[in-house]
Structures are given as C-alpha cells and as structure tokens.
TrEMBL record:
Keywords: Cell membrane, G-protein coupled receptor, Membrane, Receptor, Transducer, Transmembrane, Transmembrane helix. It comes from Monopterus albus. High affinity receptor for urotensin-2 and urotensin-2B. The activity of this receptor is mediated by a G-protein that activate a phosphatidylinositol-calcium second messenger system. Residues 56-324 form the G-protein coupled receptors family 1 profile domain. GO terms for cellular component: plasma membrane. It is a multi-pass membrane protein. This is Urotensin-2 receptor. PANTHER family: G-PROTEIN COUPLED RECEPTOR, UROTENSIN-2 RECEPTOR 3. Belongs to the G-protein coupled receptor 1 family. The keyword Transmembrane helix applies. GO terms for molecular function: urotensin II receptor activity. Signal peptide: none annotated.
Amino acid sequence: MDISGSLPTPFTYTFSVIPNSSVPSSSPSISPSPSRVSTALFCALLSLLSLLGITGNLYTIGLLLRRRRSRRRREAGLSCCLMKVPVLSLALADLLYLFTAPFIVYDSLASGWAFGELGCRLLLSLDLLTMHASIFTLTAMSLDRYRAVAHPLHTTSSNSSSLLRVGLAWGLAVALSLPMMITLHLEDGENQEGQLCVPAWDEQSSKAYLSVLFCTSILGPGLAIGALYATLGRLYWVSQTQPAWASGSSTACPPRAPKPKVLLLILGIVLAFWACFLPFWIWQLLPLYQPDILRTLPVGTQVTVNRILTGLTYGNSCVNPFFYTLLTGKQRRNRQTLPSVNHLCSKNSPLK
C-alpha cells in the first residue's frame, strides 16, 4: 500500500514491489509526511477512479452475461463467442484490483497497517496477481487473433479452449505472485509509525524478483504481442496489395485479411496497459539499478510520485471497460454479418 510512514532508515531498503506498497527510498526518515491537502486529493482521486472503474466493469460483465443468456434462448447448444471468456477475465481482474482501493484510501489516512497479516499478504499480492492475469490474457487474445487470421482452418472457438487459456493465464499469475504472498509480513515501524507490511528479503532478492516480474509483466509479453501485431500488419498489407492467387499459396484457404477495428481495439487495451504500468515499473526499478537518483529526491517528492503512479495504474482499470464494450459489440456485429470462415474454406476446398 502507499504507506507514507514506511520510510527506511539509512542502509535499509524497503522496496515497493506493487503500486500500493512502501515508497522506495534509501534516505533517512527525516522528511515530513505529505501534506493533508496532498493526501486528501490522492484519496479523493482514487475513490473516484475506483467508483467509475467498478461501475464500468460490473456493467461490462452484466452485458456479457445478458447477451449469453439471450442467445442461449435463441440458439440452444451454440457455444458463446470466443472473445467473451477473455473479456470476462480482464473485467474480473480489473474488479479485483479496484476493490483494493478503499484499503489504500484508509491506509493513507491512518498511521500503520490496520488489516492484519492476512490482509497484508492478500491485498498486496492481489496487485501482482491481477496485473499478470491481465497481460497474460491480453497475450492470449492477441495470439487468438493471429491464429484466426493466419490459420483460419485450424482456429477453434470452443468454450473449453478459451477457458483453458484463461485458466493457464491465471495459474501463471498465481505462481508469480506466490513469493510475494509468502514473504510479506508485519513489522513494527519506527517513531510510532505502527505496523508496516513489508517483504522479508534483502536488496539482492528484491532486485532479482522485481527483474523477473518486469520481464513477465512488461518485457516478455511486450515482445510477444509486438511480434504478433507486426505479423498481422504484414498480412493486412499483403491482403490489400496482392490478390490471393498471386501469393503462391497452395492451401485451400489462404490467410484472410485482418479486421483492423477488432485488432486496433485489442491493441488499444494493450497500449493502455503499458502506458499505465510502464512508468510504475520504471519507478520500481530505479532504486535497484540507479539508487543515487532517488537519494537526490526529498522523501515527500517520492511519496507524491508514488501516489501519482498508483493512481495511474488504477486509471487503467477505469478506462478498460470502454474498450471491452466496444470490443464485444464489434465481435457481435461481425458474427451477425459475416459467414463462418471455416465454412467458406471447407466449401471451397478441392478435397470436398
């Protein structure tokens, strides 16, 4: 959490590994706490963001479930859209993340950690869990879009395959957040600060763990999604500039042209994630790789930067429902207006 009082003493490092945790600093705890005006503004902004985000994500989930029930009444036995399960996963991750906001607001106004060791382990680990679940689900969605374009005959749209990919994304997220959940504990703060929620590891362990998390949440998925969208961009360019017979493909159904609007909506969700979480990760890695930079900043400034970046990560969960609603609406219109690609390929195949 954003615990203003949990400032480390000289040569003692308390690194913030999630947006709500302690301010990273190696300076003595001699600076005054942030002003009441700054704290009030931060709490008001975070409360507004969480209210808007929770309302938007609940609306998205309700919209998806209502569409699923109405279609079941019209078409018994038809499986739901492949896109719905990942979008539900993203909305659920956003909701879980936003539900931690009231605890941050309370903790910013109180002195010390007030939610016990169980709350320390669960609430702070939930940030890492939902962050990884979101980016892994987005990577799976991007891979699905690539397969649907490049290999339409081999694309499956069953609920079981979507649930398997989403389950794998959440399983990997749980595995990566477990070390934080296990090592978090309560310590007595100095100068009547109360109890603080901090991880039980040294500087080198923090550096290794944070570096791994940066690779799994930003660098690795970023390279994978970038490569997929670069390939999709090339396929789209070829489809617009070259006829199918000129590609020299001997397959019955060559790669189809991507739908730019659907791809751009998914890419918009990915870019919003990076825009909101990359600054946070830069701030987390600074004290590990460039500690001298933070030593020049007053502690009050560090607290302010940490709060701004915390609000930015919550802003991501606030704007995501806009993309989710557009994405599911676009997918629904595409199903109503376009025939099945697999059906067309099978119909035109010389093997039939």
